[in-house]
Amino acid sequence: MNSPETISTPLHALNSRRSTKFLRAPAPSPEEMAQILQAGMSAPDHGSLRPWRYAVIRGENIAKLADLALGAVKRSGDPRMTPEKEKSVREWMAAVPLFIAVAQKIDHGKIPEHEQMLATGASVMNILNAVHMMGYGAFWSTGVGTYVEEVQLALGFDPLDYRFLGYLAIGTPGCAVPPVQRPDFRDFVTEWTGPVA
């Protein structure tokens, strides 16, 4: 877990965040989760649609989610869900103290759907940054039945109205999280000075 001393400035927090898959208890407290989820409300959002939707899953409900999602993946015929893979995923989920299912509510009005998805992604990024700034770890996963309609329906996200985007696993890092070497931004940025020939 990070301490306030290790995250010295907001920019340092942004630059030091990284995904952490192996998590354990404790999860953020209810008061901390309220602050984390409120951070998601500050995302840029064309049309003020607030397209993001979140379902918090914790405690004994995580085992229910594992049964539901892994069973649905197997029924879907996905050959990747071998007994070994299922055992590994169940063990991982059992250790994680809190999941947030992420969905985008689709508005068929004048705001393009891709802009609604970008707003949802921005909201998720705010949540991930808030989790990190509070000293916890998180991992955005699409590996637990995200693309199986049965799972989406069971979570309350009817595919006619929602695009299901996976889960945020949140908790305390289960081991030391070494810093990651990021690429130099200059490899991804140009300065535009006029029409490209």
Question: Please, could you describe this protein's structure?
Answer:
It comes from Bordetella genomosp. 10. Belongs to the nitroreductase family. Its EC number is 1.-.-.-. This is Putative NAD(P)H nitroreductase. InterPro entries: NAD(P)H_nitroreductase (IPR052530), Nitroreductase (IPR029479), Nitroreductase-like (IPR000415), YdjA-like (IPR026021). With 197 residues, the chain is of the alpha+beta class. The protein has a domain of 132 residues: 3-Layer(aba) Sandwich (NADH Oxidase). The protein is 37% helix and 17% strand. The chain is built from six helices and five strands. Strands 1, 2, 3, 4 and 5 form a five-stranded antiparallel β-sheet that branches. α2 runs antiparallel to α5 and α3 runs antiparallel to α4. The longest helix is centred in the middle third of the chain and has 21 residues. The mean pLDDT is 93.
